[in-house]
């Protein structure tokens, strides 16, 4: 992964900008392949230093947690609203808002 936003002119189409080619990394005669995304401390970055991958990951996590909460809060077999609020504050909010101040812009 080459972390840069630098661009250069496309030789075939001067009106367009492209990202420069990334250098090949070798460790003990083994080529290290580039990845499109990297996760550091639970925050996902893509090669253009955008947060699109992190946003998609957070959205998927929120949808999964919402479905689990729906199962827990059933009217007939579910737990009470008091305990749902406690689980929401102690479990869900910390999981969904982890490192949000880094990648989220309102």
Explain how this protein is built:
The chain has 106 residues and is of the alpha+beta class. The chain has three helices and six strands, in the order ββββββααα. Helix content is 39%, strand content 17%.
| 3D shape | elongated
Gyration radius over CA: 21 Å
From the helix content, strand content and strand pairing, which structural class follows? Answer: alpha+beta
Strand content: 15-25%
Please give the count of helices. 3
pLDDT < 50 runs, ≥5 residues: none
> N-to-C terminal Cα separation, in Å?
28 Å
Name some characteristics of this structure:
two-stranded antiparallel ribbon, 106 residues, alpha+beta, 6 strands, two-stranded antiparallel sheet, single chain, 3 helices
Q: Strands, helices and their partners?
A:
Elements: E1 8-9, E2 17-18, E3 25-27, E4 30-32, E5 37-40, E6 43-46, H1 52-72, H2 81-96, H3 100-103
Antiparallel strand pairs: 1-2, 3-4, 5-6
Please summarize what this structure is:
With 106 residues, this protein is α+β, with helices and mostly antiparallel strands. It is built from three helices and six strands; from the N terminus they run ββββββααα.
